[in-house]
Predict the 3D structure of the following.
Amino acid sequence: MTSHTTVQTFTRGRDNRFVYAVHTDDPTQVFHLDDDAALDHRAYTKEYLRCPVPECPLPDLTTVHRADRRDGFRHLRRDASTDHAPESLLHHQGKAAIAHWLTNRYRQHLTVTIEPLLEGRERRPDVMAVSRSSGARMVFEVQYSYEPPHVWRERHQWYRDHGIVDVWLFGHTGSHMNAAEDGTVTLNPTHRAVIDEGMPLLWLNPFDRAIATAYALEADPYRRGRKLSARKVPATAIGNLSVEPLNEAWVTARGLRTALIDELASNESIQAELRREYEAAWMSRQALQPTPAAPPAVTTPAMTPDRRREWAERRTAARAARAQVEEENRRAAVRRDLHRRWRHDPVLAEIVEALGGEPPVIHVSGAVDDVELGLAHGHWRTIAIADVLLPRGVGQAATIGSMLIALKKRGFTYPKLAMAAEMRAWLEHLEQRGIVERRDSWSFVITAPVVAPVADEPTPVRATRPERTWPCKACGQPLAQTLVDQGFDRHVVEPCASFSARARP
C-alpha cells in the first residue's frame, strides 16, 4: 500500500504551482516547466507562451524561480482578472497535463487535441486522442467540480453511443477527494456510478504528474484446506488510495491502464471464479445428500392456486426482509467506520485539551443519517467548534457558511443542502442552551462560550423541543445515543438480547 506521506502529498498537493502553459500560436501545444528551469525559459515564455485559460484577458506570462518552493509561471501583468478561480485553474492544469503526457508518449501514434467540438457541436471533451492508424477516438475528462451521478451517466452514454472510449480523471483535491489521515478515501455517488459501469476509478494530480486509484482487500475463503488470503479488488465504498506516476501508465483500446488497475481487474475475475466454484461445490454436496422418502401420494393434497400464491408471497417477503437486513448491516458498518474516523481525528483531541473534556453539544441526535452525510454528526460538530466557535469571541457571528467552508478546507465532501439543514438545527439547539442567538436563517451571534461539562454539576439547559430518537429493531424501545453513534440498531444487553433471540424462528 502506498505510504500515508505519499497519499497526503497527492491529495493536498506538495506545491500546487502554475506549471503548464500553451503556445501562443497553437494553444493545443502544451509546455511543461520543469523545476529549477525558470531562469532558462523566461525569455522563451515571454515570447512564445500564454496562459492556458482561454478567456484570460492578460495571457502574457513570465517565469518565477523560488529557492524554497517549486518554480512556476506567473502572469506578466496582474490584476483582479488574472486571479483565476482555483477550481478553474486546476481544471486547465489537469487538461494540460494529460495533453502533454499523451503528446510526448504517443507522438508517433496519436493525434492529441484540447477541447475539440464533436458531432453536432454537442460535446467538447477536455482532451481527445485519435489513433492515426485506425481512427479510433478516446476522450479524457478532468473533473474537479462535483457532478451528480445522473449527469455523469448521460455524458458517458453519449460517448458510448458514438463509439468513443471515455476516460474520467477526478481532481486530487476538492469535492471529489474525501481522504482520511490513514490513507483511505470515501467514494461519493458519482465514483460508485463509474465503478458500476465497470470502469477504473482514477484521480489526477497534474502538478506531481501522478494518478491514483482506490482498492479494498477481499478475503479468499472459498477453497478448503488453504490458508485464508486477501486480494486487492476495486473499492466500492471506502478504500485504500494507491498513487502511481502518470509516466508509468499507458492507453489501450479500453482506456487508460496502470499495473495496479490490471491487477485489480484480474483479482476481481479470480474472486468471481472462486465464488462460482464454491457455489458449484455446495450444490454438488447437496445433490449427494440422501433424499428423504416422499409420503404416500394420497396423503399430500394438491396445492391450490391460492396456496401457491400465498407461498410465493411469503418467499418474496422473506427475500425482501433479507435484503433489508443486509442493507442495514452495511449501513451500520459504514456508521461504525465513520465513528472511528471521528474518534481518531486529532481535532477531537485538540477540543478535549482546550475545554478539559468533550462538550455535550457534540452528542446531539441528528435528523439525517451519518451515512447520507458521509461523516459522523459528532465529527462535523467537533470541526465547527474547533474552527468557528472557539476562535470567535462572544458577540461575533457564527454562520452556517463558515462551518461549511471549515469542512471543505479539511477535505470533506458532503451534500450541501442536507448538511446546512443539520447545522441550522444544531445551532437552534445551541440557542436553546444559551450559547448562540439567531440573527437570521444562516447566521447566529455567539452569546456564551462552548464549555465541557463540570463534574457533579448539572449543565443548565433551557426547555428544548423533543429530540429525534431511534427505536430498537428488536424491542422497539429508544436506543441510547452512544449506540446510535456507533452504528448499532438494537440493544446489545439483556433483556433485549434474550427477547431478540426468542423472536428469531
